[in-house]
Amino acid sequence: MNAPTATSPAHALDTFFAPSSIAIIGASRDALKIPGLLLTFLRRNGFPGWIYPVNPNYPNIDGLACYASVADIKQPIDLAIIIIPARAVLDALKDCAAAGVKHAIIISSGFAEEGGDSAAMQDAIADLARKSGMRVSGPNAEGFYNELGQVAATFSPTVDVKPDAPRLLATRRRIGIVAQSGGIGFAIYNRARTLGLALSYVVSAGNEADLGAGEFFDYMVQDAATDVILLFLEGIRDPETFVAAARRAAEVGKPVIIVKVGRSSVGGRAAASHTASMAGWSAAYDAVFAKYGFIVSDDLDEAVAIAAVLTTSPLPKGDRVAVVTVSGGGGIWGADVAVAQGLDVPELSAPLQEAIRALIPSYGSPRNPIDITAQAVHSGGLQKTVDLLSQSEEVDSILLVLSLSNETRISFKIEELKPLLDAQRKPVVFYTYTVPSQFARTELAKAGAVVLSSLLHAGVALSRAIDRARFRIAALLDCDAKPLPSDLLAPLKKGRLSEYDSKRLLAAAGVPMPQECLVRSRDELRDAVIRSSFPLAMKIQSVDIPHKSDIGGVRLGIASGQEADRTYDDLIARAKQQRPDATLQGVLVGTMAKPGVEIIIGTLQDATFGPMVMVGLGGITTELFRDVVYRPAPVGVGEAAAMLDGLKAAPLLHGFRGSAEADMEALAVLVARVSQLAARHRDLIAEIELNPVLVHPKGEGTTVVDALVVPFANGSSNVP
Amino acid sequence: MNAPTATSPAHALDTFFAPSSIAIIGASRDALKIPGLLLTFLRRNGFPGWIYPVNPNYPNIDGLACYASVADIKQPIDLAIIIIPARAVLDALKDCAAAGVKHAIIISSGFAEEGGDSAAMQDAIADLARKSGMRVSGPNAEGFYNELGQVAATFSPTVDVKPDAPRLLATRRRIGIVAQSGGIGFAIYNRARTLGLALSYVVSAGNEADLGAGEFFDYMVQDAATDVILLFLEGIRDPETFVAAARRAAEVGKPVIIVKVGRSSVGGRAAASHTASMAGWSAAYDAVFAKYGFIVSDDLDEAVAIAAVLTTSPLPKGDRVAVVTVSGGGGIWGADVAVAQGLDVPELSAPLQEAIRALIPSYGSPRNPIDITAQAVHSGGLQKTVDLLSQSEEVDSILLVLSLSNETRISFKIEELKPLLDAQRKPVVFYTYTVPSQFARTELAKAGAVVLSSLLHAGVALSRAIDRARFRIAALLDCDAKPLPSDLLAPLKKGRLSEYDSKRLLAAAGVPMPQECLVRSRDELRDAVIRSSFPLAMKIQSVDIPHKSDIGGVRLGIASGQEADRTYDDLIARAKQQRPDATLQGVLVGTMAKPGVEIIIGTLQDATFGPMVMVGLGGITTELFRDVVYRPAPVGVGEAAAMLDGLKAAPLLHGFRGSAEADMEALAVLVARVSQLAARHRDLIAEIELNPVLVHPKGEGTTVVDALVVPFANGSSNVP
Question: What is the distance between the alpha carbons of residues A314 and A336, in angstroms, rounded to a whole number?
Fold first, then answer.
């Protein structure tokens, strides 16, 4: 009866979110406590299916027959909600499985978040789910709310029905919310609902013994009733499901807004203990979010404001915004906020200014920001100005900076505003600098408008909508990494590589390497010198000497054959003296690199998401400014180029202050190939570091000055 | 009758803000239009003085005698509010002046913001004010509201009295609001009032023909009823008054929160046309704000949240915060926000954890963030935990992350909470992740608490309160710049200086300069070489060649006497060939500087605030990251050191990655002296640039490699 909408294909979780029958295990007559609230909210929200309270202490609750155990129900049960002491949960779940219950939500707390025995109980739950096929959400979950299907399977007070406060509904497009934390998940719902946003589902994942946030996310992606997805996550336990869903969301063009917490060390520590989740390394999360075009936010109201713009408006076609105001100060501030968010506030054309000037007093301004003055509200100038701007090709969105606090009047005629907004020509964002009145919210909702109360959030939402409109998911592989021959893989398995070994490996993988020779004698040196040109660089090579500079093992600017001979002898002697136990490979000889922009390229393995590739500008200052960009590996050339453009220091590569433009193309290919090598051999390679890479002027390629490939056997850590 | 509070000394604006009698010129019977609203709001708010409506068309309005003109009133008038067509305003003002009216507010629009004739009318108003001594606010103003004195001299609907919505009042300390924009000024009042903040005054300055925002600011600073000042400014027309008030506020320790708009070029353009104000150069404004410890915000709600923390709580004694929550996710997020704002979220001591553990369920966490769980709210654990933390020496503030949306219950007993908050031991900040209920706001207000609805703003507010607690106004001058002898001032008046001239000037002002000689012949060169040590730097000197490098006029690393001779000849020949018309001063010869951290120091003159001093890290990367700090000149050594520490790249000076610590002390003295030179001779010196300055290891001083002093006569611009 609560069937998914016609356009969604069948999904295993359909009967979780839209069950025909629900058993409440631990149901209670006390309507003020959690077990009682579950029953109350289910019924008050008009759940249209069968409800079976289970509690051996009552024959009935509030007119419903009450059962001593699930086994006694003897009817098909789509969902069991379990709210009994933690120690009794596992047995109750076993009963559910035996009775053929399809899904269960464990509301009870006191499992992994307590550690010890309690954590073991959670493991047993996970085990039971795996073996029985019954899908289990929680423990420590707050349940879910399905607004369309009227299923309030939660004790969150935010779903209570208040007859004196009718549901404000401004949007037709719906947001779906997935949160591990029920408190915050339902708070987002609460805030979104207050603004008049329509919801599909809110679901809290809790400790995720079985069903995880990734799986719920995946459900929202395929669900036809969900238009925008909002995630609040502490960490991800099912990264593969999550990433697959993220890719699918990107492919079908369904926007995803994410608030990721547990970013600080303290927050991360708390996240680890709270639901025993892995908050993980923020940079890896952000890299994944960036790859799939997620809109990242750190604030509930901002996230909801972004959702409001995405559900009320089409995506903007460009970044030109008209700021329309009744307050000069508000217009100036609106323009500031828009510009700070990267939007363009163009001065309007003379004809458009003339048309607007006719609608406003002489002391107003039609330039943009457009100050129509309070006077023009009364004369209908506001409505007509918005209409003109909506029709105009000069701006891509309209930001209204108004006062919408009046309890009896608003500045628009709904019958005129509604068709304008229904036409969905461009985003029209309503901001009020005074506290919005419920009257204004209610009236504007009739026209499909949501009133925002933060100008910053309004600007951010428009900016993110533009980013989203421009986002294209990167092609998976537009550059082929050569497979490595097995003789090169051997040293990886042995555990340590020198610079020479690393560069051979990289060269074999298609990463362009400088012409260098490993020499083991004066004779070999002579040949190498003949094949190079002065000045030379010479570096001692040994897997036992990873930090060559520490023993004076790197010599630069060698200008003659004699000097090369002397240097060779000295490098060997010095290494033997300072590291007598080291096995020496020889000395690496090559021409000194031409100058170029100094870049660092690296890969590492994140505990949650696996191989990641990093680019950064080299040098001490950049280290200070932490100007690096990460992406999940592998990346193609296009995505690598986007990474490079994401650096704050990107202008240096594009020819800053009259210097030559760098060979971005060669650099992007290099980044892509390194990332592909790291991804292809993720089982063997822990880290790769190319530092520095010199990027020469356009057409002249790159020089990898130093490189190191670190195999897993070497015991490297996952996160830098 | 509306006398200032006992502790304020008499101030000329006392009778402006608390008049005994008000004339409304242009009063109307139409209660829906602005002239009618003025009368309505004055009376509804219980203005306790005499009201004289002036309008020749009515014998009376709403029971009050109405006068044909101000002259007819024949009673003392403290304040006239003028709301008639722009063209009639000047005559009405003349009548006011003739009748001995003390103050006037011009609500009418259509003056400087229209330009042309209308701007001339504003000039005439200013002129009249100057000549008559009658102080005039506006035109284009929205008036003011004095909450204590019940004076609603404004048509802003935000001051309307709503019997069904009683005034929520949580704080005893009061905020005063000054805005040029009435719309935004009263919107801040509206938002603050909704939170339960007490206000002293809200005043809108409009076009500031006579009374400016600086003067109103000054009033708030001296006013005993105002505890925290909130400014919303587009630009400052009376910088001297403003800066003097800022200094006074800093000296008396009254916090100032400022939202400065018109920062973007578009916003600035709009500001310039809107109220014909000068939005100015943002960096100069921020430098002034930083100097006087202003709290800068870009958001109304954030500004109000900061005001809420400052009016409800004492300043924190340190940066350690306890995050207390009933939602695990909320606690993690609270910790993230606190850490992101620079706060410390320390794990609590074992004894304190034990004490809290006794109050909460086993699946809660007493570590910090402290997750007491929803369960502990019902058992009183929340209140007791807050009490423990309030008494503890382990944290300096408490951030509560709660759900306060319930319409009938709250998580605290007011009779227990009130004494805890009244004790003012440390800030206790209340944040709710769900939408706050009016019930919760009202109940908590009884205990003196304000409920914030943005966690980010709560974190920002705590962080700014800590900054404020740490702020000390810089001593004006702790380093004496030598006065310049008149022979050195002469070239400044002539209009151009070479590097040599500039360095002489700087040296005379006490700025340490390297040992260098200006040589004009081979003989002089020989002497100079003997007094220097190799390698040398040699630079052509001419006021006609400001960019020496462009003609190859700079030679470095000269290693012998012969090379010096050749270089001298070549520099002279090259200059004569490439700039035949240039008057050559000679060649500057000195020892090459030792290596050091590259710093840029400069001064310039801001159109609003006059001389400013700038420090920045040198080099191309820093230019890219715009890592510079400005302050109004002059600065003392202490303030200069604070500027240097304000650089993102400050770690480079403090010995980054094992390099030596730089001579910060010498550098700070150098910055101070340069700033003092620029300030002392602000009438002659437009700009000074020292670029680069090399800062050597501690105790080894600095080297000014190149320097240029640009006199005003050279026609430099004021803003970079």
Answer: 24
Cβ pair B212, B136 in contact under 8 A: no
* CA distance, residue A454 to nearest chain B CA (Å): 7
pLDDT digits (tens, 9 = 90+) for B401-423: 999 999 999 989 999 999 999 99
Strand order in the sheet with B536-541: B516-519, B586-591, B536-541, B554-558
**Do the strands A610-617 and A597-606 form a parallel or antiparallel pair, or are they unpaired?**
antiparallel
* Residue numbers in B near A335 (CB within 8 A): 264, 266-267, 270
How crowded is the C-beta side of B525, counted as CA atoms within 13 Å?
23
Alpha carbon distance A541, A548 (integer Å): 8
Overall pTM > 0.90: yes
**How far apart are the C-alpha atoms of B290 and A314, rounded to whole Å?**
42
- The first and second tokens of residue B428, run together, are 């206790």
Interatomic CA distance for residues A192 and A194, integer angstroms: 5
Partner-chain contact B261 A623, CB within 8 Å: no
The count of C-alpha atoms lying within 13 angstroms of the C-alpha of A285, restricted to the half-sphere facing its C-beta, is 21
Please name the member of B185, B263, B328 whose beta carbon is closest to the beta carbon of A336: B263
| CB of B220 closer than 8 Å to CB of B174 | no
Nearest to A331 by CA among A379, A380, A409, A385: A385
Please tell me if residue A549 touches chain B, with a CB cutoff of 8 Å: no
CB-CB contact of B619 with B607 (8 Å)? no
Looking up tokens 């040599």 gives B500
Which residue type does A679 have?
A: A
Instruction: Of B572, B581, B597, B547, give the one whose Cα is nearest residue B706.
Output: B547
Under DSSP, is residue A88 helix (H, G, I), strand (E, B) or coil?
A: helix
A143 CB within 8 Å of a chain B CB:
no
pLDDT digits (tens, 9 = 90+) for A469-506: 999 998 766 545 667 888 888 888 877 899 999 999 99
Q: Is B274 close to A332, i.e. CB distance below 8 A? A: yes
Percent of chain A surpassing pLDDT 70: 95
Using the structure block, give the residue that is written with the tokens 């002036």.
Answer: B54
Residue B477 has pLDDT above 80, yes or no: no
With CB atoms and an 8 Å threshold, state whether A335 touches B267: yes
> Are A331 and A323 in contact, with CB atoms under 8 Å apart?
yes
Of B109, B333, B435, the CB nearest to A191: B435
Determine the pLDDT at residue B719: 39
Residues of B in contact with A617 (CB under 8 A): 621
End-to-end Cα separation, chain A, in angstroms: 52
Q: What are the backbone angles phi and psi of residue A61, rounded to the nearest 5°?
A: -135, 120
Q: Which residues of B touch A110 (CB under 8 A)?
A: 361-363
Chain B within 8 Å of A183 (Cβ-Cβ)? Answer: yes
Q: Is the distance from CB of A612 to CB of A632 less than 8 angstroms?
A: yes
Pairing, β A21-25 against β A50-54: parallel
Cis peptide bond upstream of B692, omega within 30: yes
